[in-house]
Amino acid sequence: MTISRLRGLSVVIGSGKGWESEGWRAAVETARIAESCGFHSIWLTDGGRDVDEVRHNPALVAAAVAVNTRRIRVRVEVADPPASDPLRVAEEWSVVDNLSDARVELLSRLRGDRAGAQILSVRELWSGKPVLRAGPGEEEYSVRTYPAPRRPEPTCWFADLGAGPASGIPPELNAGVFIAGELAVDRIAQRAGLLRDQFQAMRGRPARLAVAAGTTLRPEEVQEIYALGVEELVYTLDIEATRDHLAEAVTELARAKGLTDIA
Fold first, then answer.
1. What are the C-alpha distances in Å from 176 to residues 43, 60, 75, 157, 205?
2. C-alpha to C-alpha distance for 258 and 254, rounded to whole angstroms
3. pTM of the model
4. Rounded to whole angstroms, how far apart are CA atoms 70 and 206?
5. 10-residue averages of pLDDT along the chain (263 residues)
6. Beta strands in the chain, from DSSP E residues, in sequence order
7. What percentage of the chain's residues is helix, strand, coil (to nearest 5)?
């Protein structure tokens, strides 16, 4: 069996001072540098903030990253997709899908059946399902997502915090699981095994797994994690702490993790 050894880079965006200007540009620049260093994906998260906190518009951030990169997968946390009109949400992400040439993917931290139902509603609109909307004179019109996305359905990831079953992920979704929290290797093995068995039982195929990895993992631990069937290890970069030397920080991390696409 061929074992994938992809690496991703995760950054928390929209928090702390300076995000009104320099912080956003730093996030986009981090993605550009990560791509040049050979990272397979950039994960743009909001750090698990409370639902009632003010949040950025993730589609706008993803669009900025998309037009400044060419190959890297752009994975963006979406807090609560249907909090707005699902049609509007689907159309926002359809634009990003076009700008990214089908590289954008959605990450949800929501739990339970509500999480899957919300993402599923966006998926249906993404795939071209018509919905009724009021038009002139309050007459109802059948409308579809415009512009049409590049792909027939979105790729989604659900965050797994290391406890409980992987519930709420509809079998029909093209979804993977992101094991968050930088767990110890033995805990990663337990979760990966549980998720693999659950997906095999529900869907007839293994789970796609990405794992948040600590930067201090030893090479043999890295190999052990990949051998579990994990598709990608995701390392975290603190933009606030490295903003004045982003290129050096990302390049150093890439070299330490064995990436070879470094000029």
1. 14, 23, 12, 5, 11
2. 6
3. 0.89
4. 29
5. 75 68 87 96 79 68 96 88 73 96 89 66 89 85 93 89 65 82 88 86 83 88 92 92 92 87 55
6. 6-12, 41-45, 73-77, 104-108, 131-134, 140-143, 156-160, 175-179, 209-212, 232-236
7. 40, 20, 40
Q: Are strands 175-179 and 209-212 parallel, antiparallel or unpaired?
A: parallel
List of residues 6+ apart from 109 with CB closer than 8 A? 48, 77, 79, 158, 159
Contacts 24+ apart (CB under 8 A), 177-183: 177/207, 177/208, 177/209, 177/210, 178/43, 178/107, 178/209, 178/210, 178/211, 178/212, 178/234, 179/209, 179/210, 179/211, 179/212, 180/212, 181/212, 182/212, 182/213, 182/214, 182/236, 183/211, 183/212
Number of residues that this document lists for the chain: 263
Determine how β-strand 156-160 pairs with β-strand 232-236: unpaired
Residue owning tokens 């699981």: 177
Instruction: Give dist(CA 228, CA 27) in Å, integer.
Output: 31
Return the closest-CA partner of residue 75 out of 105, 114, 49: 105
| Amino acid at position 24, single letter | W
CB distance 22 to 242 below 8 Å: no
Q: For each of the domains in the chain, give its residue range(s) and CATH number, in order of start.
A: 6-256 (3.20.20.30)
